[in-house]
Amino acid sequence: MERLGRRSFLAGGLGLCGGLAIPARSMASPRRPQREALSLRLPGLDPAHDGLRVVQLSDLHAGRQTPDDLIRAAVAEANALGPDLVVLTGDYVCHDRRDVGRAKELLAGLRAPTYAVLGNHDAWTDLRGTGAALRSLGYEVLQNAWTSVRVLGAPLPLVGVGDKVSGHEDVGRAFAGLPPDAAPLVLAHAPRTADRLRRLDRQLVCLSGHTHGGQIAIPFLTPLLLAGMAREPYLRGRYRLDGVQLYVNRGVGNSGVAVRVNSPPEVTLLTLRAA
Known about the structure:
The chain has 275 residues and is of the alpha/beta class. The protein has one domain (3-274): Purple Acid Phosphatase, chain A, domain 2, CATH 3.60.21. Helices cover 27% and strands 25% of the residues. It has seven helices and twelve strands. A six-stranded mixed sheet has the order 1-12-2-3-4-5. The chain is globular, with a radius of gyration of 17 Å. Residues 1-27 have low confidence and may be disordered.
């Protein structure tokens, strides 16, 4: 979320937590992520990719507000799921440039081919350094670019869109040269990028993060606060926007405060199905 929007939301959310007398144990930062599994049917998907397994990790926020063992557990879970691909959808650090090396250390060891985009906190902290850290691990970073990934015997178009919140989104550049009949998997840190993607009149799946599922998720109130203060209508889970199928991951780590309420950290297993 944008800087002021997130600060205001977290401050208000914590006050509400106290007012609603939520037990302290529910506000602790969990030590293990929760697995979420979903299947999406994508028109135009190559039949060779029917059943393709993609693991998504997002918003790790290496630093003092996220326990190191939580990030390690997320990486271990990603490997245990045995995916064909791993995708990373931004915000590997929070505010401190010294945490770029920490993020690199904690993210090491993903065994499947891994592709990434960068988030707003990466841009605000050290965009080049964070990208270089990911590349040094053998993970490909897509910044307003697309690539063709050969997996399960056939090429899969994979697009990475720059972060909208920090002003790096360029959908036109990201899709430049991609055949018009291609049905890509798109990575975009900010869910609102889906509003721009729907204008392309394509069938695609977009994986995003950024919102932490609200992080402090008060029923009814959190969506209103996010939509009003951060202008973020897509909080968590699945959305359908014309030809765009959007999934918003709750993320692994914390920012603002080391607290999650009703929004446990997440590792997503997506299975793609041919329509």
